[in-house]
Every structure is written in structure tokens, then in C-alpha cells.
Design a protein that fits this description.
Blueprint lengths: L9 E2 L15 E7 L2 E10 L2 E4 L4 E5 L5 E4 L7 E2 L5 E6 L4 H6 L2
Antiparallel strand pairs: 1-8, 2-3, 2-8, 3-6, 4-5, 6-7
């Protein structure tokens, strides 16, 4: 496992692809909002419910396209108020990841 104390930030590509950070996995997301650094755990929603085995959207919801947070909560939050510029892998310990798998 990578060193959890080191965050390897990468610039978010301008156009979504099927690769990280647009692959549906959770990542650390960074945005600068009015000179305040904001880091959130989130994932990219391509605009609907996705079959992760094929990557196909089987129930389109175009209004849902974008970054989201609180995946394992009853109330998920679309991060449309943030301009996410960087992402990094989320290096959670295995016992935490297993809890939410």
C-alpha cells in the first residue's frame, strides 16, 4: 500500500474518460474555493446508473453528471458548487475499505 501520509495529487483531465479519476472509484478531490483549500472524498458519476462490469449507463440521468460525495450515506451530495482541479488515490487501510465494499 502507498504511504498514506503522502498525497500524490494529479491534475483532473479536461474531458472525462473511462480511466481514473472518472472510473467510478472514490478518490480524494481538491478544489480551491475563494482561496480556501477544500479536499473531499468523492467519485465521478457519468450521468446515470452504471453497470460497472461493462461501463454502460443503463438508467440515464444527465442531471447527475459530475462529482459526488458521501457514496455510502443515505444523503449523497453533488459537488457541482466546486471546481475540482486535482485528484489523488484514496489510500484507506484495507479494514476500512472492506467495511464499505
Amino acid at each position: 500500500m502507498a504511504d498514506p501520509a503522502h498525497i500524490a495529487w494529479q491534475r483532473v483531465p479536461e474531458e472525462p474518460t473511462s480511466e481514473a479519476p472518472f472510473d467510478g472509484e472514490e478518490y480524494l478531490l481538491y478544489a480551491d474555493s475563494a482561496t480556501v483549500d477544500i479536499v473531499r472524498l468523492g467519485w465521478w458519476n457519468p450521468g446515470g446508473l452504471v453497470d460497472h462490469s461493462t461501463g454502460e449507463i443503463f438508467e440515464p440521468h444527465p442531471e447527475d453528471r459530475g462529482w459526488w460525495s458521501y457514496r455510502h450515506s443515505v444523503t449523497q451530495e453533488q459537488l457541482d458548487f466546486l471546481s475540482v482541479t486535482h485528484w489523488a488515490p484514496f489510500n484507506a487501510p484495507d479494514e476500512i475499505r472492506a467495511k464499505y465494499a
